[in-house]
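Notes, Module 5: Reading structure tokens.

Key idea: the token line is not a picture. It is a compressed description, and you learn to read it the same way you learned to read a sequence, by spotting repeated patterns. We will look at two proteins. The first is printed below with its tokens.
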Amino acid sequence: MRSPKETALDNKLIQTIHDFALSGRAEEAVRLILEDEEIQAMQEYANTVSIKRLSYNDHGPVHMRTVALNALIMMDLLRRAKIKTSLEMEESGTFEDSITAVFCAALLHDLGMAIGRQDHELHSTYLSYPILERILKQVYSGDIQKQTVVRSLAIEGITGHMASRAIHSIEAGVLLIADGCDMTKGRARITMALAAGPRMGDIHKYSANSIEDVSIRAGTEKPIRIDITMSSEVGIFQVEEVLLQKISASPAKPYVELYAIEAGKELKRYL
């Protein structure tokens, strides 16, 4: 059974896609993925392994939906700034195809946590492949070319979301940053409550627990502005060692401004 948080995010995702006023293919993909029982089950088990077995923070349904929403917001900001996606520049697809690939990647990128943390992005690719085949055949019925392009782009986003492997598309770059932006303290809440002593991944949960808010909006100099608000300096780990590293590895970096502020201190600009 889905949590109220998941349901609220589902509604927000559907509305966000609907507001793009596209042909309907992306919205169909969103609905198919959000309603898919296998995807839901895999997300939930990945989260169980992440939190209960490994003592990491949230890598489940709420996280993947949050990443998807972050990515959609950034894709919209790029579109408003008239920045073309890689598919558009290469004339391989439309903005809607890019949106479909990014959304698919966001909802599937951490499935590999069901197996373990090490190389989980690679585990996610082979777990996601048959799901992408099934979903995209329905969305792009009879269009093998589009199925191939969108599937390949989604897999690039999944394999590249840890910034440990080079990616080359704006779409995968947006997903990489969107993943890094899910760092607020709610993501570490359950892990903190279950903590019984020092364990692997502690720096992630403690630093995430100090992040009060992450805001994504239009920048003044670049299309995307990200603002991080933190309650203590331990949150700097999330900003500098996680998010900044992901932005630096992203093909979308030229379009991003990054700011952080700790309570009682001056706003610091990173990008």
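Here is the second protein, with the sequence above and the tokens below, as before.
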Amino acid sequence: MDEERGKLVVISGPSGAGKTSVCRALKKNPNVEFSVSATTRSMREGEQDGVDYHFLSCDDFQRRLGENQFLEWASYNENLYGTPRWPMDAALARGKTFLVEIEVDGTRQLRERAIDGLYVFIAPPNIEELRRRLVNRGTNEAEEIDQRVHIAKEEIAAASSEVAGSPLYDVIVENVVLEDTIKRVEGLLWP
């Protein structure tokens, strides 16, 4: 009997909406393999290369982009981010759930390429709550928080858009209480 093919699960949402916390919880399932994205942004305190991100120079990222090594890529907040292509194919062939945490532009690229999967957008209850979460993180200056809030408004509006006649996201989950949000997303993945 052939091994069942895995599934791609894409999680997106604005900075501060809770997508990383949702993904952290999903990664605890042994059937989940998490995509480690590449980025040109600076490493934050506590992050590890190859675990949190593959931290690349701009030149290295551009070289890899030219070699078609990314499933999708985006420029976000003056940095480049990309999803390496080969880990997804390997995980799906092994019957695993391959979890990708990407921005809205990356999701659009996947949809335009007709890549099958479950696409979930994690939304904040409102912009004021999102701003409060970003401020409480204590990792960003006021100007960067303003920029992230501006980007978030655009991402929230885009989440309801369509690509080639289909919704960009299959489900939009409002994250009011993180534990409830995690349970809802788990229910979507493993009904």
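Summary for the second protein:
- The two ends are 24 Å apart (CA to CA).
- The first strand starts at residue 7 and ends at 12.
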